[in-house]
Write a structure and sequence with these properties.
It contains 22 helices and 2 strands. With about 525 residues, the protein is mainly α.
Length: about 525
């Protein structure tokens, strides 16, 4: 497939950000008050901190499951107070400190605080683009695709346009990923060795992440990995005088400032909650009484039903289950999104296999013979290829750690909410762009068609065994598979002059449809069910 190269990629990025801000504003203004997960508790934290100047303390009774269920069932009527919903009072303080001036300037206007979070989400879109373009500077479509996915993912848009500390945690983690990748790039490709200032900036960002949210703590092992990679590559390239001798110094410059920034908060928590509970997690689990635990659900339903619920709810809520996990879209949309997910995953696997084969052979077939374009491996030096591998490794590490936190949390509480995976969105967005571009190649498209048709057959067999075949699922998965097979055959018959245009249109299509889905989700599902 011919490499796509859009004109003025930063202009396209600006358009993506502007469209994201318009959609986020629409959600912030239109979604009824408190109809976002944990929004009342986050709002009350901002309220108490801004009006009293004191950090709130999590106390017994701040989590009342029965009253919260009543509020959700009655759609948070104005006459029902949300003052007692305070179970986020244990959270680290940075987001709430930054939101405090907005609260005071607007008199506590909910929409203003939502827009503050949405603005942070715009930074995440830009940082995702910067991460992708740093790794793949000659492939702007990948960076734009990754940014568009982060911008228009319906569930992320809805969460970003609500009051919560997720937005700031995601921004800080993405910034640390970007600077970690650039740190490794300096160590491997120059033009200079990483300096003490580079390490110190990373340390300050890590410290800010530590006082924002526990989900951002994955930044610490990612940073350590980046330092180790940079040191290893400097030694390997005989650039020890430029970096390796200062490895310990840089290690101190990263982790000592981070610890100094977080230490006052840790000391405060240890004093307030006791037992060296510096994150207040032990006390939080004590206060949260009535929330369904995984062991109870296992006893009630069995392992098979729990696993099925976990997988289905995780997938659907990653794309969009709104309100308090109570507003679902049409089931056919989730099936189409599943088809897209399977196609992208197939593309990623085929891409990895193709790159592995290329690395294992000294002379692999040159795609330029078919497309007239010089292959990627022939354009870059070995060090650039190694830099890409290490960069993708750092992204994968952040994603795997985020998934690990998600799984460990669900081992305790029944919380299969895909939004907990959003700290890994830069990695997920780039993987989606890479997988989707790869699956548009004829060979990968045929594999995707096979996977989807096999999935349709499997869905039919499972439905038959359960005496209830979901014909829509079978038809949509099978139809999507057939479409990929047709694409692989048609692409080879299109003239070379039209292939690049066809590739560009096909690559853009799913991201444009996500933006349309944002509008449809608000108009067809959220407002009719929550207004």
């Amino acid at each position: 497939m011919r490499e796509m190269s859009p004109q003025h990629p930063k202009v396209w990025l600006a358009l993506i950000v502007v469209l994201y801000l318009l959609l986020a504003t629409l959600y912030a203004v239109q979604v009824p008050a408190w109809q976002a997960p944990d929004e009342p508790a986050h709002y009350n934290y901002v309220h108490e901190l801004a009006t009293t100047g004191q950090f709130p303390i999590l106390r017994m009774g701040d989590y009342d499951q029965a009253y919260l269920d009543q509020l959700k069932a009655s759609r948070f009527p104005p006459e029902r107070s949300i003052v007692g919903v305070r179970y986020e009072a244990h959270q680290p303080p940075l987001y709430y400190l930054l939101a405090g001036p907005v609260f005071l300037a607007t008199g506590g206007e909910l929409a203003a605080l939502r827009l503050f979070s949405a603005a942070l989400g715009a930074l995440l879109v830009v940082l995702t683009y910067a991460i992708a373009v740093t790794i793949f500077p000659g492939r702007p479509y990948l960076a734009l695709g990754a940014a568009a996915f982060v911008a228009f993912l319906p569930m992320h848009l809805a969460i970003a346009a609500s009051v919560n500390n997720d937005a700031l945690a995601e921004v800080l983690l993405a910034a640390i990923l970007l600077l970690s990748i650039r740190y490794v790039k300096l160590a491997m490709l120059g033009p200079r060795a990483p300096s003490g200032w580079d390490a110190l900036i990373l340390g300050v960002l890590l410290g800010l992440a530590l006082i924002t949210k526990v989900s951002a703590y994955v930044a610490a092992p990612v940073l350590l990995a980046a330092l180790l990679i940079a040191g290893y590559e400097a030694r390997r390239q005989h650039r020890a005088a430029g970096y390796v001798s200062r490895f310990t110094f840089h290690l101190i410059l990263v982790f000592l400032p981070a610890l100094l920034i977080a230490l006052p908060w840790y000391a405060r928590n240890a004093a307030v909650y006791g037992h060296f509970d510096i994150l207040a997690r032990r006390w939080h689990d004590t206060v949260v009484v009535g929330q369904l635990r995984t062991t109870d659900l296992l006893a009630q339903s069995g392992a098979g039903a729990v696993l099925e619920r976990f997988l289905v709810w995780s997938h659907d809520s990653f794309w969009g289950v709104f309100g308090w996990m109570g507003v679902w879209m049409d089931g056919r949309l989730y099936t189409l999104l599943l088809a897209f997910s399977l196609a992208v995953l197939t593309g990623c696997i085929v891409l990895a296999a193709r790159k592995l084969r290329a690395s294992q052979t000294k002379a692999s077939p040159n795609p330029a013979l078919r497309t007239g374009v010089v292959s990627e491996t022939s354009r870059f030096t070995p060090n650039v290829s190694r830099f890409r591998v290490w960069s993708l490794t750092l992204l994968a590490l952040s994603a795997l750690l985020t998934i690990g936190i998600y799984l460990s949390y669900n081992l305790i509480f029944v919380q299969p909410q895909g939004r907990y995976l959003f700290p890994a969105l830069p990695a997920i967005g780039l993987a989606v762009a890479l997988g989707w571009q790869e699956v548009l190649r004829p060979a990968a498209a045929r594999w995707a068609g096979f996977v989807l048709i096999a999935s349709a057959a499997l869905a039919g067999v499972i439905g038959w065994l359960r005496a209830g075949v979901n014909t829509w699922s079978v038809a949509l998965l099978g139809g999507a598979g057939a479409a990929f097979v047709v694409w692989s055959l048609a692409w080879l018959r299109v003239s070379t002059r039209w292939r690049q245009r066809l590739d560009a249109a096909a690559f853009i299509l799913p991201f444009a449809l996500l933006a349309l889905l944002d509008i449809a989700a608000l108009s067809w599902f959220i407002l009719p069910q929550l207004a």
